[in-house]
Amino acid sequence: MKPKVVYKPISSPEGIEDHVVYMGRLQNNARRYYQCALVIAILVTVLFCLMAAQLLLFPLLCTSSTEKSVSPDNSCSDPCSLVLVESIPEGLEYSSNATINPSVYQSWKRLLSQAQSSVDIASFYWTLTNKDTHTNHSSASQGEEILQEMMKLKQRGVRLRVAVNPSGSKAKDADIDALRDSGAEVRVVNLPHLTSGVLHTKFWVVDGKHIYIGSANMDWRSLTQVKELGTAVYNCTCLAQDLGKIFDAYWVLGQDNATIPSPWPDTFSTTYNKETPLEVSLNSTASLVYLSSSPPPLTAKGRTDDIDSILSVIDDAKKFVYISVMDYTPTEEFSKPRRYWPAIDNHLRKAVYERHVTVRLLISCWGNTKPNMFPFLQSLAALQSNKSHYDIEVKIFVVPASEEQKHIPFARVNHNKYMVTDRVAYIGTSNWAGDYFIRTAGSAIVVNQTGTANATNSLQKQLEAVFLRDWTSDYSHSFHSLTSYKEKCIF
Ligand SMILES: *[C@@H]1O[C@H](CO)[C@@H](O)[C@H](O)[C@H]1NC(C)=O
Ligand SMILES: *[C@@H]1O[C@H](CO)[C@@H](O)[C@H](O)[C@H]1NC(C)=O
Ligand SMILES: *[C@@H]1O[C@H](CO)[C@@H](O)[C@H](O)[C@H]1NC(C)=O
Ligand SMILES: *[C@@H]1O[C@H](CO)[C@@H](O)[C@H](O)[C@H]1NC(C)=O
Ligand SMILES: *[C@@H]1O[C@H](CO)[C@@H](O)[C@H](O)[C@H]1NC(C)=O
Ligand SMILES: *[C@@H]1O[C@H](CO)[C@@H](O)[C@H](O)[C@H]1NC(C)=O
Ligand SMILES: *[C@@H]1O[C@H](CO)[C@@H](O)[C@H](O)[C@H]1NC(C)=O
Ligand SMILES: *[C@@H]1O[C@H](CO)[C@@H](O)[C@H](O)[C@H]1NC(C)=O
């Protein structure tokens, strides 16, 4: 079918030629325009050279431009060691040679056992026990064990601080109450009131030295029934203290009647960001690292907003962008009236169209998936065709569930929130919809080891292997085959 788009008639008959003539006319106009522009450019250059010469001859006259742009010394000699960790839901099986990483549960146990002075946890909600979920499932034991370990911290002389979003109901506060009783300090951060979002961040800072950050909630299901991905970094004071600043912001906002400071005091500022990342060795590999944060009202001076880190990682990709997130939609999921929010979509399309980057999106489907996500994904996937040479593909990951597992509420889903390109690894805590970057609190770690040619076991390589393992697994369904997503997803 010929396109119905009608350009201003020029001289020839209507139809497809019209388009060609129109383009020809445009090019002629452009030529004239460029000749003109060239003359102006030469004039401007001459003027500029004159001014520059004057400044060189009389530098003292030029007082206002002497402000120095001293770049901060962002190098750090900590012997950081980074471990990629995952929760693989019970019953989800890969081929025997597949990449298997240490578990989130192991990393939490290890962090708790190493803690000597402090554990700070930023969290959305707490349901670490069967009691919380009104279930009686043996796989809750890992979560219950974690809660028990936390309740022993005070005895060991370790200060536990928890920042948590309001639960909205006293009945849902059992874990929080138990922690308080054990001596933990808990602050409820009323983000719904402060920004109309939620505190959705999930990270730990231990002894100001070790961190965990990733998709897992403080929920027993996040250890055995939901597919999660995160990272633990040990012996890394410079990074841990920077994450500590984000925690401190939540902590301040958890005080009674708190308001959001504007601007945030300097103690919350950072010099580690996408322009000047921390230079540190991770597993003896030279790396550039920074932590991003959302929403903008909570980001102090120097901190990169989470959405800006995502866009810059996409823009930086030369060969591929692999994305694994539970929800992806170029809208604000929860706004009324509805709002379109194409920031990420635009950068993905641009990468495909302008740079021929291969884009793969692995999105989740489960009982709580909003159906209106699919037309937008379909629209991205529609760029791909045998003729177009635009390489973009969407697959839907469905976590299998036995009859028994189907009865576990809010489980059996791929909850991952990461992206890996041919150059950089990004591990976050937000779903990819507008609200998460505009109103909701989240954060992410960005690891760039492209400068190290030989990083054979870089985080980027490990994350790429994880993505390809999932992408090629039987749990990933080609988007085109998904005529009725309800049939494919487990409800
Ligand atoms: C794992 O084994 C399968 C079949 O045996 C093979 O196709 C695949 O390439 C292997 N994957 C890796 C990561 O070695
Ligand atoms: C939980 O299940 C076990 C067996 O699986 C049973 O012995 C126990 O009584 C159950 N507890 C509750 C509270 O239902
Ligand atoms: C952290 O450093 C300590 C002391 O040097 C060492 O004993 C420990 O093994 C390190 N931890 C990791 C995970 O590398
Ligand atoms: C917070 O506001 C309430 C109501 O205005 C007031 O009663 C209370 O004293 C305030 N608390 C603090 C710590 O300022
Ligand atoms: C694209 O090409 C492949 C292999 O040549 C073929 O199997 C597929 O059906 C084609 N797809 C479309 C949409 O034409
Ligand atoms: C990664 O580091 C290189 C320098 O090694 C830099 O040019 C590039 O912009 C960085 N990428 C991102 C996404 O920050
Ligand atoms: C990089 O890898 C090559 C081949 O594995 C090795 O010969 C070389 O020494 C390595 N260089 C560095 C700086 O590690
Ligand atoms: C870093 O070292 C730890 C401990 O040796 C290992 O488990 C982990 O996989 C390594 N991480 C990377 C990114 O190579």
From TrEMBL:
Alphabetized Pfam families for the sequence: PLDc_3
Q: Which residues cross the membrane?
A: 33-61
Q: Which GO molecular function, any one, fits this protein according to its record?
A: exonuclease activity
Q: Which residues form the PLD phosphodiesterase domain?
A: 195-222, 410-436
Localization terms from the record:
Early endosome membrane; Late endosome membrane; Lysosome lumen
Cellular component, GO, one term: early endosome membrane
The record's catalysed reaction(s) read: Exonucleolytic cleavage in the 5'- to 3'-direction to yield nucleoside 3'-phosphates
Q: What is its EC number?
A: 3.1.16.1
Kindly give the membrane topology term recorded for this protein: Single-pass type II membrane protein
Q: Which residues form a coiled coil?
A: none
Please report which protein family the annotation says this sequence is part of: Belongs to the phospholipase D family.
Give the PANTHER family listed for this entry. 5'-3' EXONUCLEASE PLD3, PHOSPHOLIPASE D - RELATED
Q: What name goes with this protein?
A: 5'-3' exonuclease PLD3
Organism expressing this protein natively: Engystomops pustulosus (Tungara frog)
The organism's taxonomic lineage, starting at the top: Eukaryota, Metazoa, Chordata, Craniata, Vertebrata
